Amino acid sequence: MILPIYAYGQPVLKKVATDIAADYPNLEELITNMWETMYNAEGVGLAGPQIGLPIRLFILDSTQMEKEGEPFKGIKKVMINAQKIEETGAIKPYEEGCLSIPDVRGDVQRPEVVKIRYLDENFEEHIETFSELNARVIQHEYDHIDGVLFTEHLKPLKRRLVRRKLDKIKKGQIAREYRMKFVVQK
Question: Which pTM does this prediction carry?
Answer without folding.
Answer: 0.95
